[in-house]
Each structure stands twice: as C-alpha cells, then as structure tokens.
Amino acid sequence: MSEKDTGWDFHLRKLSVSGRDSNTANDPASDPSLLPSVRKLHELCKTEKSEDLVARVYPSINKIFQRAAASLSQSRTSNGLLLLAILQFYLDFGEFVLHDADPSLRTFFRSCLSREFADPVVAEATLEFLINNKKKLLTSFPNLLPQFFPLLLKLIAWNGERLEKLFLKAFPGLMSPGSFLPLLPSLVDLPILVVALEKVEKTSGPLIGSSIASIQKNTAPKMLLALMDEAYTGSTIEDGGGDSEYEDNSAIDVADPLFLELLKDENDGIAERPWSSPVMAAILQASVNSPYSDKLKAVLGMTPRLLDVYFSIALHTVNNSLICALIPLLMSRFATIFPDKIFSYEVRKRLLEFMLSTFQCSPNFIALLKKPIMDRLGEAYDSPDKTELALQLCWAIGEHGGGGGSHKDEARELFESLELLLYENLSSSRVGMTQEVSLGSDKDTYRRSSQSRLLCFVVTAIAKLATHHRELIPRARVSLGKVARSRISDARVWRRACDFLGLMKDPAICSSILGPSRPTQGTAQKVGSINWSEGSTKMIAHIPFYILGEQEGPPFHDFSFSDIIPRR
Fold this sequence. Notes:
Mean pLDDT is about 80; it is low at about 220-250, about 430-440 and about 540-550. This protein is an all-alpha fold. It has helices at about 5-20, 35-50, 50-70, 80-95, 100-115, 120-130, 135-140, 145, 150-160, 165-170, 180-190, 190-205, 210-235, 255-260, 280-290, 295-315, 320-335, 340-360, 365-370, 370-380, 385-400, 410-425, 440-470, 475-485, 490-505, 505-515, 545-550, 560-565. The chain starts with a helix and ends with a helix. It contains 28 helices and no strands. This is AP-5 complex subunit zeta-1.
C-alpha cells in the first residue's frame, strides 16, 4: 500500500471514529484532530481529481457537518473553522455528489457565524472563504450575502481595521437589488452598532457564544407584537422601562426593539430607526459623554471608506430606478448621523458628492424627486445640517434647470418653493434657525452668515431656473426685484440679485452665463452658450468671471489666452 493510500485511510477512519466516540459525537469541534483530517481529505480529493474518492469521503464529512450544526447551541468549542472547511468541500465537489450547498451555507451564517463573528480567527477565515469563492457565490447563490449583510457588518464593526482590506474585497458581494437600499443606513450607523455591541458585551458577557441570540429569542414575541401594532394602528408598544430615566450607560435595556434592530443578523428591508426615541438618545448621550473605545475609533475612521466603495459601485453598476429611490433615503439621513464632528463631516461630504453626481448624470431625477426636494427646502432652517442640504439642493435645481426643458410643470413647482424660501427670509429681519430671543455674538454671526450663504444660492437658483424656462422670467424679475429693494438683505445677496436683474435685460448674455453648462439629452447646445468643459481645447470669446475676481472698473489684466487655458 502506498504512503498516499495509507494517509487517506487514516484520515477517513478518523472521521468515522469521531462519529462513534461518545466524547465528540455530540460536539465534533471538540476533537482538535478532526479539522486537519477534513482539510487533508479535501486536499487529496483536489489533487487526485477522482470522483470515486469524493464519493467515499462525502458521507463522513456530511455527517460531521450535521452533528456540528445540531450541537452549536450547546457547544463550548468554536465550530467556525471546521464548518468552513466542510463548506469548501461542498462548493468544490457538490456537483459530483449532487449536494446543494445553499442550506448548509445558510446554516453556517444563521447558527454559527451569528455566535462567533466576534472571534477574530473565525472572522478572518470567513472573509477569506468569501473572497476565495466570490465568483461561485455570486453566480450560484446570489442572494446569500445580501441576505446576511447585517451579520457581516457586525463582523467588521467588531474586528475593526485589521480585517478592513479583506472586507473591502468581499464587500461588493453584499450589494444586490434587495440589499442596496437597506445597506446605506446600516453603513452610516456602524458607529452606533459598535456602541450597541459593546453594551451587549458589558451587560450579557462576551459576544462569542449565544448572548445576542438568546436576547433576540427571548424578546421575539414582544418585537412581533410591537411590529404588528405599528403596522395596523400606527402606534408603538412602549418599552417597559420607558418611564425610568437613563441616568447612565448601564441603564439602557439591550432587549429594546431598537437594539434588536441594530443587532439583527439578516436583511429584512428598510426599518425605521427612531432617532428621537429614549433608547437612541441614551446610546448617543452615553457614547459622546465617555471616551471613545478603540473599536469605536476604528469604525469612525473606516465607515467613510466603506461608503466610498458603496457609492462607487452604485454609480457604475446599479440601475437608475434604485439610485433614484436612494436619494430620498440619503436626504432623510443627512441630519441624523453619529454626532462626532470629523465623522459627520466625512459622511455628509460623501452623501452630498454622491447626490450631486447622480443629478449630474441624470438631471431628470430632480423632477422625479420634486416632492422630497421641496420638503427639504421647507426644513432649511431647522438645523445647520439641513441648511447645508437645502443649499446644495438649490444649486442642483438651478444648475440642471429643475430636471430639464421637458419638465416645465415640475420646474414651476420647484421655482415656487424657492420663491417661498426667499420670501420667508425677506418677511422678517430675524430670520433665525431657532426661536431664541437672545443669542451669543458668535452664534448670531454664524446664523447670519449661514442665512446669507443660503440666500445667495436661492437667488442664483431662481435666476438660473428662469433662464432654463423662459416663461418663469417675469416671476424671477419680481422676486429678485424684492431682494434688490429690501433693506434687510445682506450686501452680498443684494448685489447678486442686482447683477442677475441686469443680466436679464440682455437675454443672449443671460443665456450664455446662466444657461445650462451642457445641453440636456436630446437638445443641441444653444448659440452663444459657453461650454466651459471644452475650455482647454477650444478658443472662446469670453474670459471667465472667476478669473477676473469680480473686480470693478477698467480692465486690469494683461495676459493672453495661453496664460489662462492650460496646454495639453
């Protein structure tokens, strides 16, 4: 008998003996020699490329998987590596033995990884498994990873930057039509997920085991009643501890439905996360008032990079209907972000860049989304964050003509919203974001500066929108005239309104400066309009205003176009 045959028989007998051993029959992972035998048999099957050998080893390996899966709730040994080794055997040789790996994969995620995601060894091995089998998983089991993306987000949130590179390689597999929308709020809320996981660890012990699963199991009936009540009556069942004050971090109830929503393992669609709830307020208050843990610091830095990958994939591969549906969700989350200054800045920056890039690629989205856009304009002074969002939306409305020349009704409604926002500011000299009577000098200065900046964008949007849709020019002249005659307007706003009124007296120049920067789909570039994107390749008849620095008086410049337009 050859040495190879001897090794084969040894490992095969090891699998058979394990099933008869009373000490390991109900907990196969407790036998440390079992994993090397499974791996060795798998390696021999790949080397020999023999269907007969695969058929001989499959029954023993399959029995081990079934016993290990059945013992997960009672096992005190990590089963992750053993089950991953068997799953690899299923994926490589399942077609030879007619084994459908889908139920086995779901058993691993639902029963094993949900208990062992906090184990760094199992977490790393899982990501390597997903990367090595990416093509097969996406083609044969396309809904698997999108279904369990909340669990994989828990894995990376807890294990942090050490596994970031591996996770980024596996991340595209999490995105599908069914997970694309729910994935965004889950990514934005990764820091809150870390806080929730740390709370569970503090309250219920180490996360490696059944702590989270037992919490979910014990509160499932209560959650079901709450969801049914909310669905049919619109009300919610209050948490039992709702009357008590959250005096410290330890008083938060980890069985609260909000916590269970954060800690869920499977994708069940977009769920409302009430930021005004006592539990969420307690989570944020506790995390902000105490020093950040290392895990929270890591996630605060990692989340913006995950959003970069998410938005990059969205712009290149996701269909327009899903992207259009994402924009209102993005706007609703703009003001509800974990309250860390650097983190919130980085996340909002990416949300705005994606939204504006989407409008640039598909200007008609502005017309399709006029209702949520108008709602956001109406909230412009609720908070500084909403002011910034409204400002960017005003720019997009003006830049893209309210969706294009074919959307005249939508453009008119958007114009009316801009008018209303403008008149609300002109009706009172107070124009504040709060109803406070007394304001500190710094806060008052910031408020006035923010108001002036927004009004500059509103005035510009009104002028540009009227240039796109000429039937709105008379109304635009009235609106800008009121600003020009107003005594309470900021000097910058007043000057801009006067400039636009002057431009409107010469339609050709007005169209050239305020008209669309590029022709809309199906239309030609208007005569006299400047396509600034071609400035480096074509001679143009105008010097851009930003080069002149808005200087008044006689020309002060002494340069040629070769000094202005870069050469290739």
